[in-house]
Amino acid sequence: MKNPVRVAVTGAAGQIGYSLLFRIASGEMLGKDQPVILQMLELPMEKAQAALRGVMMELEDCAFPLLAGMVGTDDPMVAFKDADVALLVGAMPRGPGMERKDLLLKNAEIFTVQGKALNAVASRNVKVLVVGNPANTNAYIAMKSAPDLDPRNFTAMLRLDHNRALSQLAIRAGVAVADIEKLVVWGNHSPTMYPDYRFATANGASLKDKIGDEAWNRETFIPKVGKRGAAIIEARGLSSAASAANAAIDHIRDWSLGTNGKWTTMGIPSDGSYGIPKDVMYGFPVTCKDGKYEIVQGLEVDEYSRSMMDKTLAELEEERAGVAHLL
Ligand code: NAI
């Protein structure tokens, strides 16, 4: 049997946590031969800690053969101790009347503390995925608060947007999701993101040619993917949880176990590729191998794409400027 991998999950008693933990413990994220130890963080309030205890009782009741241990805590230094994977899901939600700026600042406090704790106690190879919104900027803050860790250890979740785009394309083109390759969602996990299927293929044939409808791309597809989160809230009365947990599992599985040469989308600190300034946490097309990601290079950026990529970049730069004084 392999040595257990330590997986830290914050916001463990929340909606996404409830969809995520059981799948991690059953082996869906790291493989059916990989034992895991779950290290779960929740707020210190009694209500949150009681809910966490309940989740841990249910995890126990599943008797997962791969669950080699569990820790429940309100201390990031305990949750992140020797963590190999850290899923930062817990975040401050936007309350009634709360300005976007206040939301950014509240979350900046959380992700500064958590970045510092990761810096102090996590494995030097920890793979960090930030899910809690605003995910890209929270990931940027955590990265900047962890100067002793490689910036490449920090990522933000664009995978839900990628998966949403895949399904919309499959429906429109009448092809199977599994046959689509070479899709990317550029930029911020927000309605400014740019889902881009110019390079995508289904069974090797160009999807752009097959769909052949640029008006649908610009007026239906891009806004639909961008506003899908809001549509789910409107329909369900709650934000996406099972699909968000599923995307987090896809993101870490691909990063850890590889994509076999196929593209996926990850929010990662820019290395300057495609004119995106260094360190901006931006959705890029990547391939993963041996636990590392590489940006897909050499893609043409046409005029429309440049304007879309710059628009989502401008939003990220604005968010970054809003928290700069804290870093
Ligand atoms: P939720 O409110 O059900 O759960 C969040 C949990 O985090 C709560 O139990 C809360 O007590 C806990 N928490 C808050 N601050 C914490 C902290 N500092 N340390 C530890 N735990 C903390 O929310 P839900 O639905 O699970 O969503 C979590 C986050 O994920 C939200 O910020 C949401 O906007 C975001 N999200 C991101 C998506 C993406 O694609 N990047 C998709 C869907 C949601």
TrEMBL record:
Entry-linked PANTHER family: MALATE DEHYDROGENASE
GO BP terms, alphabetized: malate metabolic process; tricarboxylic acid cycle
Descriptive protein name: Malate dehydrogenase
UniProt EC number: 1.1.1.37
HAMAP family noted in UniProt: Malate_dehydrog_2
Keywords associated with the record: NAD, Oxidoreductase, Tricarboxylic acid cycle
Binding site for substrate: R94, R100, N133, R164
Family affiliation: Belongs to the LDH/MDH superfamily. MDH type 2 family.
One matching Pfam family: Ldh_1_C
Domain Lactate/malate dehydrogenase N-terminal: 5-154
Residue stretches making up the Lactate/malate dehydrogenase C-terminal domain: 159-320
Keyword rRNA processing attributed: no
Source organism (scientific name): Arenimonas malthae CC-JY-1
Catalysed reaction, written as an equation: (S)-malate + NAD(+) = oxaloacetate + NADH + H(+)
Positions with a binding annotation for NAD(+): G11, A12, A13, G14, Q15, I16, G17, N107, Q114, V131, G132, N133
InterPro entries (alphabetical): L-lactate/malate_DH, Lactate/malate_DH_C, Lactate/malate_DH_N, Lactate_DH/Glyco_Ohase_4_C, Malate_DH_type2, NAD(P)-bd_dom_sf
GO molecular function, one term: L-malate dehydrogenase (NAD+) activity
Active site: H189 (proton acceptor)
CDD domains: MDH_chloroplast-like (cd01338)
Record carries keyword Oxidoreductase: yes
